[in-house]
């Protein structure tokens, strides 16, 4: 396959992982409005926490990767524009905020008359078809990502599947670009669909994962309320091969950037469609945090320590982590809260002091919230409150 000039708009988890995947075979320019991120990539440093991406940037000088804040130049010279800008959920409009994606699409279509635009950002069902009609262009393609934060590059190199929302030659070409950089290209299933079906695949897949997390959390809530051994029940349930053992570790709730917003967006897409389950998945996550907070408060702690704000191990993302929801509920009852989070630079988080010395943190807190167990806390295990049974994020 001949070399193709690619611009990736957005230097977050999705953008960086796609840029490195594609830079193995094509010249890639990462476009971002944040000059600090651009400078980091120019110095071959990662913009997010991803150990493999960091190693690639440091050890693989042959990767054809550049970065810029100059949108006009980056888009004008591109044969392909991969759009990986944020689409946060807006609770006021009850939908994703897609303005960053729409801006890049408009700029890219105006910049040249031939580039293929591949939207990797998560969008509402029907978004791509609306953009195609609005701009009178079939150059816009949606291809969902299925990446884990902290392991995004690894998941791009060995993806569970590649889905492209275009069943014609353009979709086939996009799939080839994405598959080409995989470790074993022929082993990766490729599904070409219509654009709206591809958007639905993304939202339904993440909502199913959220449902599974919520199910095992509610199992744990039941067991804890009745004094039962949660581990024994989960082990027995998951021996059924139709159920399996993945995504079964109780937690404080599903969190992070994707699952909370994607479930809410899917629920919003059901506005005129009968449903019970999708709404229950969203509601279950709030109920779980209520239970955890109440269970902590029953222990009558004087000072609660929050060990790590990140959504999962190996991530530097604080967005919508479940432990923050529990923290806010505890603070609302007037219990002092302190935070240990080495990846956070501020002195306070939601008006709670950030204690940078781990020993001091452990000494000051008489109860420590930990969504996942960690060796850091082995010496104060009697203080730790967690629902982690299996010692991992799955």
UniProtKB/TrEMBL annotation:
Q: Which SMART domains match?
A: UDPG_MGDP_dh_C (SM00984)
**Catalytic activity from the UniProt record:** UDP-alpha-D-glucose + 2 NAD(+) + H2O = UDP-alpha-D-glucuronate + 2 NADH + 3 H(+)
Reported EC number(s) for this entry are: 1.1.1.22
Keywords recorded for this protein, A-Z: NAD, Oxidoreductase
Stored InterPro entries: 6-PGluconate_DH-like_C_sf, 6PGD_dom2, NAD(P)-bd_dom_sf, UDP-Glc/GDP-Man, UDP-Glc/GDP-Man_DH_C, UDP-Glc/GDP-Man_DH_C_sf, UDP-Glc/GDP-Man_DH_dimer, UDP-Glc/GDP-Man_DH_N
So where does NAD(+) get bound?
Answer: 32, 37, 87, 122, 149, 261, 319
Q: Which domain of life is it from?
A: Bacteria
Protein name, per record: UDP-glucose 6-dehydrogenase
Query: What lineage does UniProt assign to this protein's organism?
Result: Bacteria, Pseudomonadati, Pseudomonadota, Betaproteobacteria, Burkholderiales
In its UniProt entry, the species of origin is given as: Tepidimonas thermarum
> Which major enzyme category is it?
oxidoreductase
**One GO MF term:** UDP-glucose 6-dehydrogenase activity
Tell me the pathway: Nucleotide-sugar biosynthesis; UDP-alpha-D-glucuronate biosynthesis; UDP-alpha-D-glucuronate from UDP-alpha-D-glucose: step 1/1
């Amino acid at each position: 396959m001949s070399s193709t000039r690619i611009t990736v708009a957005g230097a977050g988890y999705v953008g960086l992982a796609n840029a490195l995947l594609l830079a193995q075979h094509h010249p890639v320019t990462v476009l971002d409005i944040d000059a600090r991120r651009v400078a980091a990539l120019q110095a071959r440093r990662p913009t997010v926490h991803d150990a493999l991406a960091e190693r690639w940037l440091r050890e693989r000088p042959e990767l054809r990767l550049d970065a810029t804040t100059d949108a006009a130049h980056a888009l004008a010279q591109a044969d392909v524009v991969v759009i990986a800008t944020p689409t946060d959920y807006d609770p006021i409009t009850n939908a994703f905020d897609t303005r960053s994606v729409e801006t890049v699409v408009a700029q890219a279509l105006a910049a040249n008359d031939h580039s293929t635009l591949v939207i990797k950002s998560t969008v509402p069902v029907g978004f791509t078809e609306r953009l195609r009609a609005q701009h009178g262009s079939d150059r816009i393609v949606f291809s969902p990502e299925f990446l884990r934060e902290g392991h995004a590059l690894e998941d791009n190199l060995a993806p569970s599947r590649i889905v492209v929302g275009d069943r014609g030659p353009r979709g086939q070409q996009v799939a080839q670009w994405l598959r080409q950089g995989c470790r074993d290209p022929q082993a990766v299933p490729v599904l070409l669909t219509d654009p709206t079906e591809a958007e639905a695949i993304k939202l339904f897949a993440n909502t199913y994962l959220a449902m599974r997390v919520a199910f095992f959390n509610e199992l744990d809530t039941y067991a804890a309320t009745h004094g039962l051994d949660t581990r024994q029940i989960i082990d027995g349930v998951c021996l059924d091969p139709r159920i399996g053992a993945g995504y079964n570790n109780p937690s404080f709730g599903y969190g992070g950037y994707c699952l909370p917003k994607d479930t809410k967006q899917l629920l919003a897409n059901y506005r005129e469609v009968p449903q019970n389950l999708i709404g229950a998945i969203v509601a279950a996550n709030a109920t779980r945090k209520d239970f955890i907070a109440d269970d902590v408060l029953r222990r009558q702690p004087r000072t609660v320590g929050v060990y790590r704000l990140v959504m999962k191990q190996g991530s530097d993302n604080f967005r919508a982590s479940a432990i923050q929801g529990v923290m806010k509920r505890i603070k609302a009852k007037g219990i002092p809260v302190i935070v240990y989070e080495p990846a956070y630079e501020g002195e306070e988080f939601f008006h709670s002091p950030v204690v940078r010395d781990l020993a001091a943190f452990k000494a000051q807190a008489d109860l420590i919230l930990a969504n996942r167990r960690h060796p850091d806390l082995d010496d104060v295990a009697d203080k730790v409150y967690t629902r982690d049974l299996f010692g991992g994020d799955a």
